[in-house]
Automatic annotation (TrEMBL):
Protein residues bound to ATP: G123, T124, N125, G126, K127, T128, T129
Residue ranges of domain Mur ligase C-terminal in the record: 328-447
Main location: cytoplasm
Catalytic function, reaction form: UDP-N-acetyl-alpha-D-muramoyl-L-alanine + D-glutamate + ATP = UDP-N-acetyl-alpha-D-muramoyl-L-alanyl-D-glutamate + ADP + phosphate + H(+)
Listed HAMAP family: MurD
Functional description taken from the UniProt entry: Cell wall formation. Catalyzes the addition of glutamate to the nucleotide precursor UDP-N-acetylmuramoyl-L-alanine (UMA).
Domain Mur ligase central: 121-306
Protein's name according to its UniProt entry: UDP-N-acetylmuramoylalanine--D-glutamate ligase
Keywords: ATP-binding, Cell cycle, Cell division, Cell shape, Cell wall biogenesis/degradation, Cytoplasm, Ligase, Nucleotide-binding, Peptidoglycan synthesis
Taxon lineage: Bacteria, Bacillati, Actinomycetota, Actinomycetes, Kitasatosporales
InterPro entries cross-referenced by the UniProt entry: Folylpolyglutamate_synth_CS, Mur-like_cat_sf, Mur_ligase_C, Mur_ligase_C_dom_sf, Mur_ligase_cen, MurD
Entry similarity comment: Belongs to the MurCDEF family.
C-alpha cells in the first residue's frame, strides 16, 4: 500500500498498550482517521488516551465492543480474543481485521527502500532465546539486524524507522500469527508445540493452526523440530513457494536436510553440497550458553535459519559464543556447599518446566503458582527419577502435590502454606535442607507468577536474592 492509500482511511485500533499506541500513531501519521477503542478506563488508560487525543486521535475508553461508524479496517493488539463482540460486528460488516504484525508487513517498503527479509520464529517455548541467538549469529556475519516482534521491540519501528536492516530476526506469538494472514517470511521455524493459551484459541487444534501460519508462503526454508512430529505436520500442511525446503533440527545424529549433534558438535547436513554424505561442523555444544538440551535445540533452530540466509559456519559459532541469555532463563545464580542454584522463573508452563528438569540430575525442585488449567501428571512422571525433593509454593501447589503423590510418592515434599512474597526465602531454605552436594536446586515453577509476584521477573529476582543471602551467611 502507498501513502496515498491511507489518506482519509477510517481505521479503528483495538486496545491501548505496547502495540496499540504505536499503531495508532503510525496510522495517524499516514493520514488515516484513527479511532482507538479500549475496554479499560483506568488512570493509566486515561493518561495514554490524553497523549493520543493531543495528536488528534479519537479515543473511546470503556467501550471496546462497539464498532465505530464507517470503520474500514480494524488493527488489533495481540491480546484481544477472536470472539470479542467488536470482531463479530466487523465480520458482519465485512471489515477486515489486522494485527500489528500484519500492519508492519503491509507497510514494508513504504519509504521506497527494499524491505528487509524476515526470519521468523514461533513455538510454545524458547522463542525469545532463539530469536536473540539468531540475531547474534547474523551480527557475527556482519549483517545489520535486530531482534524484534513479540520480544518487546516494535516491528513497526523496525519497518518504518531510520535504521536500514539487511534482515530481521522476528519473534511471533500465536496471537500475532492469528491476525497476520499476509505474512510471507524468507524462512521460519516452529520450535515446539504444547498446550498453551487454549482459553484464547479455543482448542489445541486452533492453537497449532495459528502457529503453523508462520510457514505460509515461506521462500527458502521451513525449519521444524524433528523430535516433535506435530511441527513437521505443520510444514506438510503449509502452502509454500516452489523450492522451499523442510529443514529439521534434532538433538540426535542428523539425517539429510537436518541439523543435529554428533559427539558434542553441532553439525549441518542441510546446507552443504552433498547432504547425503557430508556434514558441516558449526559449533561445539559448549559454545551454547547454557548447554542444556532445550537450549541446544534453540541454538540448532537459530543456526538453521541463519544458514538458510546464507550465513557461514564461523559466524554461527561466533554468534553462539557471543550470546548471553536473558535473566531468569535457566540462569545459574550460585554454588553453595557443592549445590548449584538455578533460576528458571521463565518456566511458566509445564512444557518449559519439563525441558528445564531434563537438564539436571539430581534436583530439588521449587514449583508452583498459577496453574492456568494445566495438569501435572505427565511432567511429574517424566521427572520423578531425578527428584531429590520438592518444595511447593503458590496458590495452585496442591495440583502438583497430588501429581507427586500419584507418581513419585517416595520423593520428600515440603508444602509451604503461604503466598506472600517472603515465601521464596523459606522455599530456598527448605530446598537447601533437602539438597546434598552435587545436587541442583532448580526453581522452574511450571506455573504463572501473578498469585505472588507482579511477573516472572520479580519471582526470579526473589529467588536470586534469597540464594545470595544464603551464600552471604555461608561465607
Amino acid at each position: 500500500m502507498s501513502n496515498q492509500d491511507w489518506q482519509g482511511k477510517r481505521v479503528t485500533v483495538a486496545g491501548l498498550g505496547v502495540s496499540g499506541i504505536p499503531a495508532a500513531k503510525v496510522l495517524h501519521g499516514l493520514g488515516a482517521v484513527v479511532t482507538v477503542v479500549n475496554d479499560g478506563d483506568d488512570e493509566r488508560s486515561r493518561t495514554q488516551a490524553a497523549e493520543l487525543e493531543a495528536q488528534g486521535i479519537t479515543v473511546r475508553l470503556g467501550d471496546g465492543a462497539t464498532l465505530p461508524e464507517s470503520t474500514e479496517l480494524i488493527v488489533t493488539t495481540p491480546g484481544w480474543k477472536p470472539d470479542k463482540p467488536l470482531f463479530t460486528a466487523a465480520a458482519e460488516a465485512g471489515v477486515p481485521v489486522w494485527g500489528d504484525v500484519e500492519l508492519a508487513w503491509r507497510l514494508r517498503g513504504l519509504d521506497g527502500r527494499e524491505p528487509a527479509p524476515w526470519l521468523a520464529v514461533t513455538g510454545t517455548n524458547g522463542k525469545t532465546t532463539t530469536v536473540r541467538m539468531l540475531a547474534s549469529i547474523l551480527e557475527a556475519a556482519g549483517l545489520r539486524t535486530a531482534a524484534v516482534g513479540n520480544i518487546g521491540v516494535s516491528l513497526l519501528d523496525a519497518v518504518l524507522g531510520d535504521e536500514k536492516y539487511d534482515v530481521l530476526a522476528v519473534e511471533l506469538s500465536s496471537y500475532q500469527l492469528h491476525w497476520a494472514p499476509s505474512l510471507r517470511a524468507h524462512s521460519a521455524a516452529v520450535l515446539n508445540l504444547a498446550p498453551d493459551h487454549l482459553d484464547w484459541h479455543g482448542s489445541m487444534e486452533a492453537y497449532a493452526a495459528d502457529k503453523g501460519r508462520i510457514y505460509e508462503g515461506n521462500r527458502i526454508a521451513c525449519v521444524y523440530n524433528a523430535q516433535e512430529r506435530a511441527t513437521e505436520d505443520l510444514v506438510r500442511e503449509a502452502d509454500v513457494e516452489e523450492g522451499c525446503r523442510a529443514i529439521g533440527f534434532t538433538l540426535a545424529t542428523p539425517g539429510p536436510s537436518q541439523l543435529g549433534v554428533v559427539d558434542g558438535i553441532l553439525v549441518d547436513r542441510a546446507f552443504v553440497a552433498n547432504r547425503q554424505k557430508q556434514a558441516q561442523e558449526l559449533a561445539e555444544v559448549t559454545d551454547v550458553n547454557p548447554p542444556a538440551p532445550h537450549n541446544i535445540a534453540n541454538a540448532l533452530a537459530a543456526a538453521a535459519l541463519a544458514r538458510a540466509f546464507g550465513v557461514g559456519p564461523a559466524a554461527v559459532r561466533d554468534g553462539l559464543r557471543a550470546f548471553r541469555p536473558d535473566p531468569h532463563r535457566i540462569e545459574h545464580v550460585a554454588d553453595i556447599a557443592g549445590v548449584a542454584y538455578i533460576d528458571d522463573s521463565k518456566a511458566t508452563n509445564t512444557h518449559a518446566a519439563e525441558a528445564s528438569l531434563a537438564a539436571y540430575d539430581p534436583i530439588v525442585w521449587i514449583a508452583g503458582g498459577l496453574a492456568k488449567g494445566a495438569a501435572f501428571d505427565e511432567l511429574v512422571t517424566g521427572a520423578a527419577g531425578r527428584l531429590r525433593g520438592v518444595v511447593l509454593i503458590g496458590r495452585d501447589r496442591a495440583l502438583i502435590r497430588e501429581a507427586l503423590a500419584r507418581h513419585a510418592p517416595e520423593v520428600p515434599v515440603v508444602d509451604l502454606d503461604r503466598t506472600d512474597t517472603g515465601a521464596m526465602s523459606e522455599a530456598v531454605r527448605e530446598a537447601t535442607r533437602l539438597a546434598r552436594p552435587g545436587d541442583t536446586v532448580l526453581m522452574a515453577p511450571a506455573c504463572a507468577s501473578m498469585d505472588m509476584f507482579v511477573n516472572y521477573n520479580k519471582r526470579g529476582e526473589a529467588f536470586a536474592d534469597a540464594v545470595r543471602a544464603l551464600a552471604a551467611e555461608s561465607d
